[in-house]
Specification:
It is globular, with a radius of gyration of 18 Å. By secondary structure, it is of the alpha+beta class. It has 2 domains: 4-142, 2-Layer Sandwich (Fructose-1,6-Bisphosphatase, Chain A, domain 1); 151-261, D-Maltodextrin-Binding Protein, domain 2, CATH 3.40.190. The chain contains 7 helices and 14 strands. It has helices spanning 4-25, 44-60, 92-97, 171-180, 190-198, 212-224, 252-261, and strands spanning 32-34, 41-43, 65-68, 82-90, 103-110, 113-121, 126-131, 136-138, 141-142, 155-158, 183-185, 204-210, 228-230, 243-248. The structure holds D-MYO-inositol-1-phosphate and calcium ion (CA) (2 copies). D-MYO-inositol-1-phosphate (IPD) is lined by residues 69, 87, 90-92, 188-190, 207, 210, 214.
């Protein structure tokens, strides 16, 4: 039998230790490289942090599989068994340029079902944490169920990319939503944007393409507080695939999907 209490305790310990290591790296010179394009950054700390988690998981749970952004885990093609989905630093561009607004994100799934979600905003020392069926917390403070809100009172996380000429969406689609909402924000870290929706600091988050490591932990938090997550077509999310995202409070999700995106 899987001992989820023990996994949860260890995952929290490791996330805190990983955060401490990242804080210490602020006094060192980072080695920065680019990946798929000149703005897709990766540092030695992204790689070292992922390797740190993988080493811990392999030592304690050799039968678990790992899907890590930097590629040190396994090649995952199906959701069977226990899978740790890890983004060692979500918001690397912020980490490099601003030394804030980045997070460690770890989602632990069993047979495709989210069990434990951890998002650690390292600089603000805010640990968002959820265990399936036991609620979501920020630094052990319970996050209340999300309340309903309409577009005109909503703050929506949205990157300006999606209202400028781009390859993923007609820029005219989201313009009216930007105009009608109370305000928009962009933090440059999907994990924190998801945690903020779960914490009620944002009412919705829209983006065109996220990978499992960006959203795995956030979806578990969101489910515990009654948030809704689908693709921009309104379809369910497949946890091992990349997809577009509309994440929002109940009611608001439908208002945005049917009133703006699919209109
Ligand atoms: C990125 C951030 C960003 C999102 C990108 C992600 P990374 O993750 O979450 O907010 O818009 O799609 O790739 O590369 O900093 O881990
Ligand atoms: Ca990421
Ligand atoms: Ca990352």
């Amino acid at each position: 039998m899987t001992n989820w209490k023990e996994i949860d305790k260890k995952a929290k310990e490791w996330v805190n230790e990983g955060g401490q290591r990242i804080r210490e790296s602020f006094n060192t010179t980072l080695s920065i490289q680019t990946k798929s394009n000149p703005n897709d950054l990766v540092t030695n700390m992204d790689k070292e942090t992922e390797q740190f988690f993988i080493q811990k998981i392999k030592e304690h749970y050799p039968e678990h599989r790992i899907l890590g952004e930097e590629g040190y885990g396994h090649k995952i093609e199906s959701p069977e068994g226990v899978i740790w989905i890890i983004d060692p630093i979500d918001g690397t561009m912020n980490f490099v340029h601003q030394q804030r607004n980045f997070a460690i994100s770890i989602g632990i799934y069993e047979d495709g079902i989210g069990k434990i979600g951890l998002i650690y905003d390292v600089v603000h020392n805010e640990l968002y944490h959820a265990v399936k069926g036991e609620g979501a917390f920020m630094n052990e403070i319970p996050l209340p169920k999300l309340e309903k809100v309409s577009v005109k009172e909503a703050i929506i996380a949205l990157n300006a990319t999606w209202v400028a000429e781009n390859r993923a969406i007609d820029p005219k689609v989201l313009g009216p939503l930007v105009r009608d909402s109370r305000g928009t924000r962009s933090y440059g870290t999907a994990a924190i944007e998801l945690a903020y929706v779960a914490a009620g600091r944002l009412d919705a988050y829209i983006t065109m393409r996220l990978a499992p490591w960006d959203y795995a932990a956030g979806l578990i938090l969101l489910e515990e507080v009654g948030g809704v997550a689908t693709t921009l077509k309104g379809e369910p999310i497949n946890i091992i695939e990349k997809s577009s995202f509309l994440i929002a409070k109940e009611g608001l999700h439908e208002e945005i999907l049917n009133g703006y995106i699919l209109k």
